[in-house]
Structure formats: structure tokens, C-alpha cells
Amino acid sequence: MSTTVFSNDLPHPAPRSSRPEIMAAEIIERLTYRIGKDVQVAKPHDWLTATILVVRDRIIDRWMESTRQAYRTGQKRVYYLSLEFLIGRLMRDAVSNLNLMSEIRDALTSLGVDINVIAGLEPDAALGNGGLGRLAACFMESMATVEVPAYGYGIRYIHGLFRQQMADGWQVELPETWLAHGNPWEFERRESSYEIGYGGSVETVGGYDDAPRYVWKPAERVIAMAYDTPVVGWRGKRVNTLRLWSAQPIDPILLDAFNAGDHIGALRESNKAEALTRVLYPADANPAGQELRLRQEYFFSSASLQDILRRHLQQYPDFTNLHDKVSIQLNDTHPAISIGELMRLLVDVHGMEFEEAWEITRHTFSYTNHTLLPEALESWPVPLFERLLPRHMQLVYAINAKILLEARKEKNFGDSQIRSISLIDESGDRRVRMGNLAFIGSHSVNGVSALHTELMKETVFADLHTLYPTRINNKTNGITPRRWLMQCNPGLTSLIREAIGDKFMDDTDALVELDKFADDKAFQEKFAAVKRANKVALSNLVGSRMGIRLDPSSMFDIQIKRIHEYKRQLLNIVEAVALYDQIRSHPELDWVPRVKLFAGKAAPSYHNAKLIIKLANDVARVINNDPAVRGLLKVVFVPNYNVTLAETMVPAADLSEQISTAGMEASGTGNMKFALNGALTIGTLDGANVEMQEHVGAENIVIFGMTAEEVSNLRAGEYNPREVIEGSRELSQALAAISSGVFSPDDRNRFTGLMDGIYNTDWFLVAADFDAYAKAQRDVDQIWTDTSSWYSKTIRNTARMGWFSSDRTIRQYATEIWRAI
């Protein structure tokens, strides 16, 4: 057993200087000796890399000290397993958190370099899709800020999700090439590499008198190689690690095959390994896609657990205290196979008895559920699971037998309850339920908003909640105010500092002091000026990217999120069509000029989501080019939504669209970002909107539509959407226009199926909520026309959003689940 020793007696390099002239000299040194460029010929991307290397050196000092401190104190470590980490650009984030922004700017200015130009060249790390991945990134930054020793574990995707382009209004998926020129933030850790197996067989070893021991002999193996990125907390107090795994073949080339002329076949092992880490969320509508997805999830889970156990043995003699020193958080269901893998490692590799291993496993893991949608809870066909992970299939059956027997004997569960909690779904083709495995194998299961947590108890996990009534708890999501206020909205940050001082920068609860300025006319004017400047910036971006001119004096009404039917971009588009009809029919009325902006990506195999994007673009083409509208309404779908685009759109929003079908959005974090940046929310009582209403005040948020309970009752009854549509003149006219091809003259039947879904089933209740939504939008118009009232409400939104900091969320996790601080 190897032991890592950290001694204060060993020499450590002196901390790097923060003086601008010294950093400028270091930038030149990196440019010359690390990049091989003379100052005279260096390009902006060379200056960017050189600057990142200089900043990185200042991070390393604190990073190493953070690691030494964790070993010295024996403090419990948190390991955050997530298939996504949507970290965005890192340079501004790191420099700001180190409090070096002015010094770096001065250093670059002395060299004739504009920090804004080079910072704009940094690619977004393509490591996530939407809210799940962005939450993981916020949590990583907050864990460092509140000084929780933590590692984030994920996959180093070569292409990530995809780069979205539009071709005649249709989404086109292209590879995201963020790693094409390397990543100066990361460190390869070749010593942290592990074998990952697939397939093969399980053999039983042991004599007549010995307890049987099981040995898995995989048919395939790949190597997981670690790449580390430092994550800097606020004011640089702590630096944690994001460790991402890259897949490599054991034999990169089969020379015999190559020399025999089979040049493609010779690389098959290399290609199979690389496929594991090429793309986030491979389309799983076919068996090959499902298999690749399961392979990915096991790949990063196994590598992470092997790494965690190795690190534990560097400090402690065995694993009996693992749950006292290690807490592993599963970010949604994707890493649920980790529970089976830890059992395999403890029992098969380290010789622990099953019962002891199960107790340690259960007390080590905790699970965050992010959705009530059954398809997102994940389940795998038993034949696929058993073929790919035969030993884990045995362990799943063993765990299942233990739990079901306990439920029968101790809780007197009946057959229907047993079927509900079983790890094997027997209702059709037999499938392994990963959500149930995550629940059963964790000591804590948390929802991410108060409403979502209660719905978990009543719906998807009702019987598991009966079996384990104290296991479910709530941890409402949060966002890091560093990224989502201080960095993305420097104008508002400066205004707040001028008004209430700097305390809010360390404690967002202090934002409430802004309340006293909400009705102050002079402050409202300054607040409005900041908002207008942000809207001008977004208008310039849309103009340069899309050739569309926006009027910054219009209301900017923004919905940016993953495209999904439950998030109801379709409701927003249909209301835009209805508003378009009203503006043309009643030109004499005093309409509020409005720009409806959308952004988001649809999963490649999600037909209706991609059709919604096409509809948005078709509607935009017609409305934006109709002189009868007189510029009073524009619709814009901005392609390739990512963190960087959000950092421009969020501060520019006047109105935030949070209009999901009640009971279907677990939390949302875009709602928090918009409100913190002074936008008014229009939304349903869904997810964290419920708690936002409590904090900002019912008078400062526009709520419409059915509650989650009303949605459930309506679906359980005899809902007739056609009757509802026929009873709403505006809705029926809008749907008829879309169905008949008004917005798709080249293909009049293009949207017929999409509209039929509303007429016939309306599962997401677009029709049911339309009239309430349209009325709420006209209420928003009325508020907008009273400028003082509008800014009073939006200032109070900013003032009262301090509770939604991810620092608060992480402190709750750390004290109530992880016991890490």
C-alpha cells in the first residue's frame, strides 16, 4: 500500500506576485518559451493561452495548499459524480475569483492587448447540455467557496453535445470542437489511470469449505485516463478539482492487421475506446445508442470509484471508515451504476463481506433526483445490462432480493408495492431500474425544490418513500452569484456596490438592502440605464450573428432552456401567433413593443422538439417581415445556446419565461439567474418558481395557470382539449393558422401533427393554460407601461434573490447530507 506524505518541512515555491508589471513579464515569458511566439507575430489566441498559463500558475499555489490541508486535517471529502459539467469559459471566472481582474487587465494593457478581445476567444467547454450540467458547475464553484474539500468527476467529451446551426430554420447538429487546439486549463494525470471492463463472464472461486468468491473476467477493457482542471472558489480561499476521464485503448493499433492491409480494422480498438468519450448523450433511440450510453455511464463511474478508493487507502488502512471520510453524491440517475460498482470493488476486489459492504455503500452514497419524467429515471433492458455488466447484474439481483424480503417481512408490502420498489421492472420487457437502485443504495435522496420533493414522495418514489420514510429531503437549487451577477453583469454589480457597499459579494443575503432603493426614482433611472446597456449588447450580438435589428427600447421577453415539450416553448410561440393576429386586427390599440427571444438545443432524436424550433423560425420569418406589425413584435431564435450566450442574454432580459407544465420542472435555475439580474418572471407555480414567489413577493412575479394538483386532476379526468380550443377564439385562430400552413407555405402539412397533439391529447396542457397565459402577458404589458412600477418590481427581484445562492444550497448539503463542514 502506497502512502502519500505531505510535510510542511519540504520546500514549497514562493507564491506568485500579483503586481501587473511582473505578470506582464510572465505573459511574455510564457509566450516565448511555452508557445514559441515572438511578441511581434503573436496572435490573439497566443496571448489568450499565455495569459491563462500565468493565471493558472497563481491557482496552482492555492490548489496544492488545498490538497495538503485536506490530507493534514483528515477532513471528509465530497465526490460529486455528474455526466455533465457545463463550466463555460474559465478565464474571467478564475481571474475574478482570485481578485486579479484589474491587475491582469493592467498587465495586458501594458502589452497592448485588450482582455475583452482575447477572453472572447476562449471556447466554451462542451461538457454539458443544460440545467443539470450548469448546476454541477455552480456547485463545484460553491464547494470551493464554502471550503468543502471536493472532487467533481465526469467525462472529458471530445465533442460534447453538439454545435447547433440552422439550415432553413431546422436544427443541424455539428461536432463541437472545443478541444481542437488543446485545453490550457487541464493537467493530464497519467498515474491516475484505471482499467474498465465490459462483457465476459463471472467465475466462482473457492473450495468446498470456503465461502464462494466471484471473479469477473471482462471480454473487453479500456483505460480511463484522468485530466484535472482546478476550480477556484471566491477570493481564492480554496481550489478544488474537476477530474474528467478520457478513454484510451489498451492496444492502440493492431499491428498484425495493419501490416496485413486491414488499415481500418487495425484501429477498431482505438475507435471503440474513443467513442466512449466523444459525444455527450448519444442518441439512444436504437440499441447501439443505448449500449454506448450505458458504457459511458459505467466507464466514468468505475474510474471515479477506483480513484476514490485508491485515495482513501493512501491515508487509511482499510475501508471500514469509508463512509466517515467519503461522501459520494450522484447528480441524477446517470451514475447510479456506481452503487453496484462500489459493491463489486469492496466485495470482489477487497474481500469484504456482502452485508458489511452494503452498509458502507449505503452510508457513502447520496442521490439527487432532478426529474419526475419516467424516461429520465433511466432503465436498461436486462439482456443488455447482463451482457455488458454480468457481475453487476448478479449484484443487482442480490440487492433486490435483500430489499424485497425486508419489505415483505418488516413492512408487510403487498404485491403491487413490491413491483413498484423492485430493481427489476417486470411490466413488459424486463428492465433494470436505475432510479430505484440510486434510491435504495443511498442514505439520502433529495429533490431540488420544495414542490419537486413533495411530488417525489407522492409519485415516482411513493412506495420507496413508504419503505424509507426519512430518506427523502429537499435541497432547493441555487446559482453562483459570481458567474451570474458579478461577471455577467458588471454594470449592475457596480451599481449595487455604489448603493449598499460590498457585503453582498461575500453574503448574497445582504442584497436585501437594495429593497430601500426600489421606489427611488434616481436609482430606478440608473438601474434602467444598466438594463438598456445590456440590451444594446444583446442587440449587437443578434445583429452581428443573424442580421436582425432589435430595438433596445422594446420589452425583451426571453425563454432560454433545453427544448422540450414540458418546458412549453410551444405555448410561447402559439401566444406570439395570437398576439400577431391581434396587432394586425387592432392597429389602433397602444401595443407594447416586444421582442420574443428563444434559445436552446433539442435532442437529435427528439422529433417534436426539433419541429418546435422549426416552428419558431418559421413564425419569426413571417412576423419579422410583415410591415403591418410595424416593428411592434419580433421573434428571434438565437442558435447554439451555451453558457457564454446565456451570459449575454440573462442580463438583457426584461421578462423571464418560466412556463413549464406545473409539476414537471424539478427546479429550474434560469429562473433564478434572470430574477437576480432584474427581470420580471412570468411563470407557473412549478419547480423553484413556488419558492421564488415566496421570497420576491406575489406582487413582484406574474403567476398564471394550473397548479401541479390541478394538472394531476385534469389528466386523471376527462379532459377534452378540442372543446377548450373551440371555446377560445384567439387560441383556435392561432392553431388553425399554424395547422393550415400560414407559416409554412412550402409545406402546409409541416405542423399538422404537432397541432393534432394539442387538439387530441394536449398532455402538456398548452390549450388548457393558454387563456391564462395570454391574459398574464397582457398584465405584463400593463406593468411595463408604468415605468416606475416596473423597475420597482424588478429591483425587488434582484434584492430578494440572495437566498437562491448555490453557496446556501451547498452549505445545506454539507451539513445535512455529507456532514463535511
UniProtKB/TrEMBL annotation:
GO terms for cellular component: cytoplasm. Pfam families: Phosphorylase. The modification N6-(pyridoxal phosphate)lysine is found at residue 673. The keyword Hydrolase does not apply. The keyword Oxidoreductase does not apply. InterPro entries: Glycg_phsphrylas, Glyco_trans_35, Pyridoxal_P_attach_site. One of its GO terms (molecular function) is pyridoxal phosphate binding. Keywords: Allosteric enzyme, Carbohydrate metabolism, Cytoplasm, Glycosyltransferase, Pyridoxal phosphate, Transferase. PROSITE patterns: PHOSPHORYLASE. It is found in: Cytoplasm. It catalyses: [(1->4)-alpha-D-glucosyl](n) + phosphate = [(1->4)-alpha-D-glucosyl](n-1) + alpha-D-glucose 1-phosphate. Its cofactor is pyridoxal 5'-phosphate. GO terms for biological process: glycogen catabolic process. Allosteric enzyme that catalyzes the rate-limiting step in glycogen catabolism, the phosphorolytic cleavage of glycogen to produce glucose-1-phosphate, and plays a central role in maintaining cellular and organismal glucose homeostasis. Phosphorylase is an important allosteric enzyme in carbohydrate metabolism. Enzymes from different sources differ in their regulatory mechanisms and in their natural substrates. However, all known phosphorylases share catalytic and structural properties. Belongs to the glycogen phosphorylase family. This is Alpha-1,4 glucan phosphorylase. It comes from Endobacterium cereale. The lineage of its organism: Bacteria, Pseudomonadati, Pseudomonadota, Alphaproteobacteria, Hyphomicrobiales.
